[in-house]
Each structure stands twice: as C-alpha cells, then as structure tokens.
Structure to design on (1407 residues):
C-alpha cells in the first residue's frame, strides 16, 4: 500500500489464493444496491436537499466515533462540539484543523477506514488529511459541497441506495418521509423507524411529559396506563401507514417480563407520581419491552433490540455537550434468561421477526447463535457500533456461523448518522463477508458455487427478508 | 472444492506450507483408533445390532443440532419429531424431505460438515442432499441400511472404535453393557457412565420418586439422607464393577459447597417435603456436586462437569416434544469461586481426575487454563456442544495452550447420540489439532518432531490417561 | 524449525509475504532499549550485584509460571519450593532435575518460549533441557553464573535495559534504588513503584499493623483516618523524591466510590476495630482506590490498576508455601460501572494517567477500548499475566485497535520477577506487534510508512509518554 488513500484489495486476506477468491466474491455483488434498514440519517436532509454546510459539520462534529478519539488524545470537546445550550460553537475551520492534525490517530480504526474510503470515492481526494494541508483541504471540500453533485439526493443516487431507514420519535409527523414518498423526482425508499425509548424508560428525564404528549396526540381520553398502551399502538399504526417496517429499542438490558395489566398499571402510576424505585423502573422497562414484542406480533413491525450501552458515562461532558458525544460505554449483558419471557410466548409466532444486537461479543457464540439457531423469530443482528469493524466482523462470523449457519443473519446494518459514510460501511461489510467466505472455500467447508449464492443472500436476500422490505 | 461432498484437505489451513505440514501431522494419526470416553449412544443399539430403521430416524430426528436449524428456518417441529405422548409421529419420508430441502441451511455449520463426511465415508454417496433427490436418496439409504455392513456392530468395527462410553441412569442394570462385555464375537469396549443428575437436582420433576427408587434398589433401610448417600455410593460401585470409568454431571452451574452432614440432611428433608426454596435447591445441588467429587476421590471414577446450559428454554416445545429437542441455550458461568470448595479439599488428591467443560468460551483463557495449569486434578474438557466446531476448537486451542500447554487436555469428546457421526467428529477434531500444531511449527513455536509427538498424545495418550482407559 | 532452541522467525506469521514485512518491522526496532515500567525484580539484586546462586533458584523456584505447570503434572510443590517457614528447602539439583524432566510440558506455552530464548541468548545453550542432560546442564549453567559476565549489572547492560521499575512496599526506605541512582558506575534507571495494597485492603492479615507502622513512620500524631491518608500521601512524595513514576494497585475488583470523609473515617475505624463486614471491606477498598486516583491527580504518579485475580486459590498450598506460588486464578470483571466514579471526577484531569489492566479478555473490546477511546486519562494496559503470550497479545491487538487505534496503548509491561526473562518477554511483544502491523499493511489498512512509525511508537514512545519516563 502506497500512501494513497485506498487500495483495491483493502480488507481482503493476505494469502494470495484466498484473496483471489475473496476478490471474485466481492465482484459478484458490486452492483447490488445498498439496503440500509437501520440508521440515524435525518429524513429532512433528503427532503430539503440543501448543500452540506462545510467539511467539519459533515465529517467531524456529528460523528462520535471521530470526536471521541480526538478527545482521548487531548483535544477539548469545546474545540469540536457546540455547547449544549448552543451559546458557544467552535469554528468549523478550527474543528477541521484539529481533525487533520489528529489524522494519524485513526490508523487501524474502523473510522479511519471509512473516512479514507469517503475521501477517495465520495470526494475524489488523492491524499489523506494532515496538519499541513488542513486549510487547503477545507477549501477544496467546501467548494465541492456547493456543487449540485454533492447534494444529498444526488449522493443518495450515486451511492446506489435503494432503501434507507431513519430512526424517529413516535410523535414525529413523518412529513419529511411523506414528502419524499410522494415526490416523483425522488426514487429511493426512505422509511421511518419507530423508536419509543423516551416514552418507555421512566428514568428518561422527559418521560412523564412524553406520556402527556403521546396520549394527547392520539386523542386518548386520559393518561392512564391503558390509554398509554393504546397511544403507542396508534402511533405504531401511524408509522406503518407511513412506510415503517421496524421498531427499534435502545434498552439498558434485554430483560423482558410479562406483567398482569393491573400490576403494570400500578407501576405506571407509581412512575407518573415520580416515586418509582430503580427496581420498579427496571420492571416497567422489561414489561414494556415485552409489550413491544406483543405489538410487533400483532402489527408486523420487525423488532430490533440494541441493549448494553451505559449512556453518557462522563456526566460533565453530558452536561456540557449533551448526549451522543462519544462516551457511551458497553457492559456485559446476557440474553438467555432475560429474553425468555418474550420468546416463550412469541418465539414461534407467525411472521414475528426479532433482531438481537449486542456490544458484548461473548454473547455471539454463547447465546445469540443458539437462540437464532432454534427460534424462527430470532435473527442475528449484525456486529454493531464498536464491533462493526473488520476484525470484529470476522470474529462475529466465526462465532455464530458454525452454530447458526448463514441463513439466520439480519444483513448488515450501518446504524450511522454520517450520511457520506454509508457506502464505505456497506463496502467494508461486503469485503469482510467475502473474506470469510473465501476462507471457508479455501478450507473446503463451503463449495465455491454455494459461496456465490451465500454472498448474494448475505448482501441482498437477508436484509430484504429480515426487514420485510 | 467442487460440488463433491468432501475434500481431502477439508478444515486444513489455506496457506500452502502450513497445509502441507498439517496434512502430514494428520496422516501420522490416521490409523489410531477412536477413543470416545463421553457420549450418548445407547448400549442397546450395539447389543441388539438391529438395522437402523430409516435415514430420517438415523440422521435427522434424534440429532437436535439438525432439528433446531430446520425449526429456525420455519419447519414446525411436528413435521420433524414425534409428540411427547407419542400420539403423533411424522412420517419418515416427510422428515427426510424437510431435511433435504433445508440442506443449504447447514453450509458453514459443524453439523453440515459432519453430515457431508457421513454421506461420503459411511454411506458412499457422491452428492449432497437436495429437494430434487430426496425420495431417491431416501430409498438408496434405506436399502443400504438393511445390509449387513450397515449394522451397528459392523460400523463400530469399520469406524475403528476401541472405546465407546455411554451415559446411563444410575439405576440402569447395565445388562446391555454386560452382554457386550461377555460376547466373544464383539471386540469393542462399551463402557457405562454414571450420570446422577435426576437424583441430585431436586428441581427435577421426578426427583422424590427417583430417591425412593434409588434407596429401594440398593436395599437401604429407609429414604434418609444417609441412605441416599449410601445408595449413590453403591450404584457407583455397581457401575465400576460393570466397567464405568467416569461419572458425569450436567449441572446448572459449577457451584460446590461442603455442608455439614446435619445441614445437608436438613436440606434433603426439606426437599423431600417439597418445600425447598430455589436457594435451597442451589445449595443442595452444590453440596451434592461436592459429594460427587468426594466419592470420585474415594472410588476413582473420573468426574466430568458439564454446566451452563439453560435446559428447555422454550416451554411450549418441551410440553409438545420433550427434552433435548434443540432449545437448550448456554449462559455465562464462572468456575473460579464456584469450584473452589471442591478443589480446596481434592484439587491435589491422588488419582482424582476432574474434567471441566464449558459452553461459555470466556472461561477458557480466564479460568480453565489457569486452573488446569495448577491443579493436578483438573483437566481441560474439550470444546463442547456449540463449541465442538472447527473455528471454535481453534479458539479453544489458542485460548488455553499458552497457559496450560498440551498436556492438560482431556482429549476429544464427541458427546453425541448420533452414532454414525462419531468418525466425522473425531476426524474434524484431529484436523483442527493438526492445523493448530502446523501453525505452531510454522511460527517456530513447537519443533516439528515434538509436533508429531503432541499430535499422538492429543489423539491417543490424553484420553487414555485422563479417563483411565 | 529444527531441534535448536530458537529460530530467527519465531512468532512471525506463516504467510511468506506477511512474514517478510514483519521481519523488516521488527528489524527497525531491534536496537531500541528496553523500557520496563512495571515489574517485580528486586532493586537489591542490582545494588548488590552478587552472582545468581544456581540455575534452579534463578529460573525455576521464583517463577510461578514454571512451578505451576510442574505442579499440575504431578510434581509436589515440596520438591520445588521451600516451605513457608523455611524449615524444608528442596535441593537445587532436585528442583532442576524436575524441571528438565518436565520440559516437554512447556511446548506451546509462553513460559516455554521465554525459557528457550533465555537458554539461547542469555546462556548460549544450543539444546533444550531434558532429563538426560539435567545434571550436566546444571553444572554448565552453575559455572556460567559465577562468571563476571553473568552478574546482574552486566546483564542489565547486555539486555540494553534503559529503565526498570520495581514494585515496592510503601515503607521501603528505597536505599537500594538510592544507591543505584548515585552510583557513578551504574548507568541504568531503576525506579521504585508505590504499591499500597497491604495498607488499603483491610482483609489483608497485616492491615491493622501496617497502618500502625505507616502512621508511625511518617510521624503522624495518631492512627486516625486523616493521619492514615496523610501518611499515604507522605510516602508517595517520598517515592516520587526517589524517582517513582507510578503507583500500582492490585485490587480484587476495579470498584471505585467517592465517600464523604466522615463516612470513610467511620469505615476505617470499624476496620481498625476488626468488625468490618465484607461489604464494608469492599466499600473501603473502592473508596481507597478512588483516593489513590485523587492523589495521582495531585502528585502526578501514573496510576496502574491490576484487578481480577483470586489470590491463593488453594489454601493448603498457601499454608505450606505462601503467596505467589502459582494458584492465583482470574475471574470475570467489569470496568464500565466500577471505574465510573473515578472517571467522572478525574477522567479529563490534566496529566492524570490511568492504565487499566485485565485478566478477563472480554473487557478488551467491550470496555477498555471504548474507555481509552474517549477519556484522555485512560491508557490500555498491555495484555497481562496469563495473557502476555503470543496468541493472546494478537487477540488484544485485534480487540482494541479498531476502536482505540494504536495511540492509547501503554506499551508493553513485562510484570516479571524473573530478571533473565526480561529481554525474551520484550522481544516476544515486539514480534507480535510486528506481526499484527504486517497483517494490517498486507490487508491495506495501514500504509507501510506509517507501520514503521507505529512500530517505533509502540516500543518506545508509548511507554515513555504513558509512564512519564
């Protein structure tokens, strides 16, 4: 590898024979569209189709993968992010200079890989960032961002995205999604996703108010538990009517409990009164995760579960800059007992799709592959967040495939708010899949013919089937 | 790899130099007999030596590895398994068709690998199953199964099995083992294994009745705790007299406690009265695991411990089809503190062999290798169940060898009830061991001469020594 | 690999192209000095510069890695170690014979690798130990050990050690360190490390007495909590004045709590009275770990944390032979919630360096890389103890680098009391780093130019910066 940004064989295995095969498997899917059934791009971005403001606002500030490593190296967050109240905003050029100076930090990281791909294939650059060229690069990129060809919709088309799911508040009116759906000049599918965390987790600072708003918005007669449940069901229907295919749950743990309605209602009222203990909070969240499963069985929304992240680990940073600023830290989780109440009742329910994710790798071979290898409802969520990196994705494949095969995989999920990184992330996933399959073929564990079929299924069939696209 | 079933270099590493060496190491043990010191084949099978009924009854229904993945893909278990009460039994041909249709699901799985080996080397097939050839294949295999050469004893001989241990109820009269031992026409060793779970776990539905039967069978004067212990000791002696070399323990967790006899007797009586709490259940099970260790020290039975599986995770399936139907799901365990009371007292006891297994891979490097690397009693159980697959076995080797070397390994355990898969499983293990050793040699960490010695020890010396064969 | 002791390409990857690159990366750092910022060599050894007594006392008895595996194979510890009271001491020649006979046990282990390197490069041997040559080898090595060239200071120089940190009792007068520092004939840096475990863990048998000695030694007016804290601060200053750069904490878990001073004082008095519960013991230890962090922020000592080992697992062995005799067994830990109180307050404190270690590999990708990838204070401790082996170090690299890059690494830590193994351990680490980087280059994930820079940083810059050398 010279000092150019990317190499055609990046991420492929070193062994010449295996690499040849991996290259060929990769080539067989290179024209397939991107299916992105879970992510955090804002639908407004595509609806408005305005130019991206500047390189730092596009590539640095909103990407907590990038911000966090700069912070670890000693750059104060106030040089990278606006203050929570918006009163102080670092200059874009300052942010960009910090990033360019810190570029060597990203060697060997997933972020570095995605950024190099973007620089070369989205922005047509030929050399990596560095302190010396920071300003020139800023100017070059800024100019490009003004061009028609860098508008979100044109990029959406150039990226060959067929489906892009967003993640939305249950009370979002989905007007942006709607506008895109009826716009004859836009041909992609931009689907909302129902994400009710702030309405379910009673420890969320806005929970009580959210319940008020929720029941009011759906015309419920009161704010009772029953009305609350009806309101959630109503908003799910609204999302379905606007194209949603899944509901996503960012829970602390994957615990589920089936409570009697009276017990649940009692917990709900205790929470409304602000007197719930942390045990009651956990019980209510577990109950509601079960209820979300029950609703998915009834209304058909695919259920995705993303547990195990300790959010906002550094409180002073949260106070200063808000959430999603790079200090969510995973911890150990276990699905086996936690998810059992839900699976007892719905693990074989017709057309119920439950996609389980983890930030704790130990769960892959120990729990997820065995669960997905028995329950028709359970799909193996793709390696997520800190694990959506080349080596980690190889470990995932190795950990789950021998028990669950290839067919129980959800397909790749980019889970990103960094729009321009979407092709790079999917490309990296495809390269890892091709590398794993090439090794399977080289070790005579999968035939070459089947490897091509599996490669296609992994990239195309799996996400379509799992997410009912 | 063409579309043929197997390749001579299957499971060997892709690098040409390493592969050459692995092939040679594998060749050096190819004529060594199979030693199978832990498994679930029924001794009656060999005693009666009847033809296997049909391909589905041989290869599909009894193999929960196979059934589970078909079920996950949407095949109802009622199409694959008899109902628990035996009132409904799916037709063999139906089961077989489901399996053949679902064959691609097994790509990349351990089951798929074992099945391909069986199809080629046991049944002489030249192509994999598929929907189109399901009926023809069923007929072809059915015809073969009637031949003298496919009778269990002939296969036992052709498989080059020297020792096969079964797993047996403590009250089994071991008449099949006995008959085989005295039969001058049968030359293998078929050894019983003492498996007292249902007599020790007070949560087991039949526990109280089992205690009654146990004490009655051994002529104890009453059903007191002391008589219960005597009865277990007596049945262990009976097993030893009938050739048993080990006692196996399928516990929930590896907890051990040394209780005073009065305390244990009190717990026992509480359990007999049906009023034990779950904490008391756990304490009694931990106490009994300690007692089993104490008995092993005294009577010399090798003690094997298989913890960490949540049995019958999906209750509706258990109700419909019974246990061992593919929904036992592992969870996180820890040996370090749990097994300490036993090791305090018996970890250096003369001739005590304690083989520790895990379904939680995290235990390999963190606990098992350190324990087996200090305590003369502790042996590293082979990767078990979901982990007895090529990549998982490589991870095991990598995780334990640097701390515990090769000498603390128990040897491979097939743990299977699928008789015809035994050679394939041992062959896969040998291929993985050869591959690991070949890498060690290629990285100049083990000399080539020693690699051949270690290969022999791993396949032959280790199981003989660990299991006192 | 012939039967010679070592090969120039040992530990390098098998693929010829990757190996070539790894060899070149390794060559680029071969003349860099050894920086050993954490270990257990006694400063007296270098101060006195006496000949090592004999091969067994040098290479076997003090190395619990070696002793433990001999013990596991059946050699009684009384044949290898003195009794705790010193009344029985096995003969050196006996110990040596046991070791030579058991040599094949070490195949594939980290210990075996380090020993082979030592035999060849420190002692100039050309063949491995074996029963047949035990006595001859003992004589040959004994003779060498009398030579001037095998004195500790000459070896220190020949090993190219620039910095060697010891681990010391807070009341150590550091006279040996002092003598070395002012000795114009000795040119290395031998730095003390403040290790207060026995003064902080109230379950330590000597704790109460240690507090008496501590407060007396620093001239405190009484043995109150406040005096105790002052005394610890005073001894840290004493260590800093004598060259210490870090304080090390061998805690059971990484729990930290910030208690009010009155509450802490109350716990302290309860502990002094000998009536603390185990929950109070844990709370006090967690509080003191927080206090140690607070002191490090104030006085600048780098803080290293080594949790998760169950010390003296086999009590009979502890009774007979004392601590550090091979039966410390790791268990599962978690940093995310445990270390949070400390990081809340000091995670971004200026010049605070907190190096986190683990024996539980699951923590690498799940917690340590995310923590070190956000908090400027947190550095990734090198793979430690059972994990400082070639494959385990590769797993560490793979687990952390994609999230945290290379820049958050502490540098290699040998953590050894086996003086002659220091070069072998650092060499092994360099070989693993070169191998990992060579793969990154071969997979086009890091440029070749950057790989050389990263290689240098990893070996030289990282430990200097992390440990403020």
């Amino acid at each position: 590898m010279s000092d150019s940004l990317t190499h055609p064989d990046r991420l492929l295995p070193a062994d010449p024979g295996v690499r040849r095969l991996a290259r060929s498997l990769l080539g067989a899917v290179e024209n397939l569209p991107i299916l992105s059934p879970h992510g955090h791009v804002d639908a407004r971005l595509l609806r408005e189709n305005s130019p991206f403001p500047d390189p730092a606002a596009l590539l640095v500030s909103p990407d907590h993968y990038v911000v966090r490593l700069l912070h670890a190296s000693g750059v104060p967050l106030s040089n990278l992010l606006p203050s929570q109240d918006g009163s102080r905003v670092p200059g874009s050029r300052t942010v960009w200079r910090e990033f360019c100076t810190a570029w060597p930090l990203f060697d060997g990281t997933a972020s570095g890989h995605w950024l190099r791909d973007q620089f070369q294939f989205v922005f047509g650059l030929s050399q990596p960032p560095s302190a010396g060229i920071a300003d020139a690069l800023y100017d070059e990129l800024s100019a490009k961002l003004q061009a028609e060809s860098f508008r979100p919709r044109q990029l959406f088309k150039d990226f060959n995205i067929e489906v892009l799911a967003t993640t939305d508040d249950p009370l979002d009116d989905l007007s942006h999604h709607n506008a895109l759906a009826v716009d004859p000049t836009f041909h992609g599918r931009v689907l909302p996703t129902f994400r009710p965390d702030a309405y379910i987790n009673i420890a969320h600072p806005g929970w009580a108010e959210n319940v008020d708003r929720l029941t009011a918005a759906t015309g419920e007669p009161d704010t009772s538990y029953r009305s609350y449940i009806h309101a959630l069901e109503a908003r799910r229907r609204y999302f379905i009517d606007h194209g949603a295919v899944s509901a996503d749950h960012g829970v602390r743990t994957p615990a589920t409990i089936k409570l009697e309605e009276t017990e649940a209602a009692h917990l709900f009222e205790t929470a409304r009164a602000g007197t719930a203990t942390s045990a009651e909070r956990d019980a209510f969240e577990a109950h509601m995760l079960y209820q979300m499963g029950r609703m998915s069985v009834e209304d058909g929304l695919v259920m995705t579960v993303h547990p195990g992240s300790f959010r906002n680990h550094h409180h002073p940073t949260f106070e200063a800059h808000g959430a999603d600023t790079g200090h969510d830290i995973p911890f150990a989780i276990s699905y086996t007992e936690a998810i059992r109440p839900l699976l007892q009742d719905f693990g074989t329910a017709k057309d119920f799709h439950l996609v389980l994710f983890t930030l704790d790798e130990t769960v892959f071979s120990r729990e997820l592959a065995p669960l997905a290898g028995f329950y028709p409802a359970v799909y193996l969520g793709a390696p997520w967040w800190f694990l959506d990196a080349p080596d980690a994705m190889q470990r995932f494949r190795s950990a789950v495939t021998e028990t669950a095969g290839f067919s129980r995989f959800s397909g790749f999920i980019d889970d990103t708010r960094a729009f321009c990184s979407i092709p790079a992330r999917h490309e990296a996933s495809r390269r890892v899949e091709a590398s794993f399959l090439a090794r399977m073929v080289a070790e005579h564990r999968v035939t070459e013919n089947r490897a091509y079929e599996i490669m296609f299924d992994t990239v195309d069939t799996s996400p379509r089937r799992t997410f009912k696209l």
